[in-house]
Write a structure and sequence with these properties.
Blueprint: E1 12-22, E2 25-36, E3 40-44, H1 51-58, E4 66-71, E5 74-75, H2 80-85, E6 87-90, H3 102-113, H4 117-130, H5 146-159, E7 164-168, H6 176-191, E8 195-199, E9 210-213
Parallel strand pairs: 3-8, 3-9, 6-7, 7-8
Antiparallel strand pairs: 1-2, 1-4, 4-5
Helix pairs in contact: 3-4, 3-5, 4-5
Bound molecules: adenosine-5'-triphosphate.
Adenosine-5'-triphosphate binds next to α1.
Length: 233
């Protein structure tokens, strides 16, 4: 099972009038979304349409040029630490430490989340099991295949649970069985009140998810302002 989460009450995560500038170019503008507990948002669109950029904005790694992100109606900028604590962001780059074993990698994340050794150990065992990694537990990160590395990275979601999962192309390098395992984990996360935002170019089964086409929010003009400046409106 997906370990219990830290959100006792139903929550909402929303973005209003979001715009993002990268390299002086408006990647998207006028973007709104609302996600409630149990909800899922799937970001679609061609290469360069801004899916990763939006996930990075949601994760607090990139400042929006315009607009507000809010958790339960409160701007997340008011308490960035709380937003970071409730968010799990998995980007393109696998954060697997090469000299640590798979179990040690997950143990590192689990103990950061919960220093209690017993609970952290159980969370690691569960994460290994759900992503079919138990037989690789003692293998160093540097000896993993691309798909095994990706599964180890995804297993962090269970080793150190949080309510909001932001996943950039999580199915990349996964075989069919691993995609099924991920779909099951996502469904359980949502069933226990979690939220998911993910980008994908592949089919993934997320019943009832809202689909967002990022190229619908493209803006044709080019701007010379530095990254992060407020857009004129
Ligand atoms: N570090 C960066 N500096 C400047 N511009 C960037 C940077 N990263 C991305 N961009 C630009 O931002 C735009 C959106 O890129 P982004 O990676 O968000 O798109 P994407 O939809 O996730 O693409 P893909 O499907 O290829 O992963 C692109 O035009 C890209 O060139």
């Amino acid at each position: 099972m997906v370990p219990s989460m830290t959100t006792p009450e139903p929550a909402t995560f929303s973005g209003t009038h979001l715009a993002c500038l990268r390299g002086g170019r408006v990647v998207f503008a006028g973007l709104d979304f609302t996600l409630a507990s149990g909800g899922a948002l799937v970001l679609l669109g061609p290469n360069g349409s801004g899916k990763s950029s939006l996930l990075r904005v949601m994760a607090g790694l990139l400042r929006p040029a315009h607009g507000v992100l809010a958790w339960n109606g409160q701007p997340v900028g008011d308490d960035p630490e709380a937003q970071a604590a409730r968010t799990h962001y998995l980007g393109h780059h696998d954060a697997v430490k090469p000299v640590l074993s798979v179990a040690e990698n997950l143990g590192f994340w689990a103990r950061l989340h919960d220093p209690h050794m017993g609970r952290a150990g159980r969370a690691v065992d569960n994460a290994l099991d759900r992503f079919g990694l138990s037989h690789l537990a003692a293998i160093p990160g540097k000896m993993l295949s691309a798909g095994q590395k990706r599964r180890t990275n995804l297993a962090r979601l269970l080793a150190a649970p949080s309510p909001l999962w932001l996943l950039d192309e999580p199915t990349t390098a996964l075989d069919k069985a691993s995609i099924k395992a991920l779909e099951a984990v996502l469904a359980e996360h949502r069933a226990t009140g979690g939220m998911v935002v993910l980008s994908t170019h592949a089919e993934i089964d997320l019943p009832g998810a809202t689909l967002m086409q990022l190229d619908d929010f493209a803006v044709a003009e080019r701007f010379d302002e530095p990254l992060g400046e407020e857009l004129a409106h």
